[in-house]
Amino acid sequence: QVHLVESGGGLVKPGGSLRLSCAASGFTFSDYYMTWIRQAPGKGLEWVSYISSSGDTIYYADSVRGRFTISRDNAKNSLCLQMNSLRAEDTAVYYCARGGYSGWWIYWGQGTLVTVSS
Amino acid sequence: EIVLTQSPGTLSLSPGERATLSCRASQSVSSNSLAWYQQKPGQAPRLLIYGASSRATGIPDRFSGSGSGTDFTLTISRVEPEDFAVYYCQQYGGSRTFGQGTKVEVK
Prior knowledge:
A: four-stranded antiparallel beta sheet
């Protein structure tokens, strides 16, 4: 059974940093692309970034490029998102999802809330 | 970037009625690379349709997707009580973008 659990969310001041993690289980993590998707409170979904199974191919949305860094540790079945220079508009629930190469996502975590506010 | 516009914003229906949700793209979506998701409050999205018309595993056949190019439709043939939710389209022909959502609510 595929299980994705995000952690690391919280309250941070504008300009600050936060590191999100996603612990994966129930599948061979190293076989799959992984993706971060976010949803601002009461708003729609926004794709943030995805990383290939080996980590050598990475894409970012324009809104986060240069500020966010996606990474993975296949030995620990873990996905991370390092978020720097945070802005109020980065406030959202951040979901990790399995896949990305195919273009759609079947398995999602329950999300972790990031709030950027002074 | 391909912009997806969903309509209507809100659809008010009674159980048993037919729901027709529209998703229009700002430019042609290559290879019908379009998916639909359902999201209920406090939950992660659930994949319904991919490839514009292929149902994901376990999705009831009352859900169907159609369309090509720039115009896509999600149809719920007879809305069940558990179908009241927000629905999003998403394209993956280029980058990955979502529509703003259509809320299907109880009339």
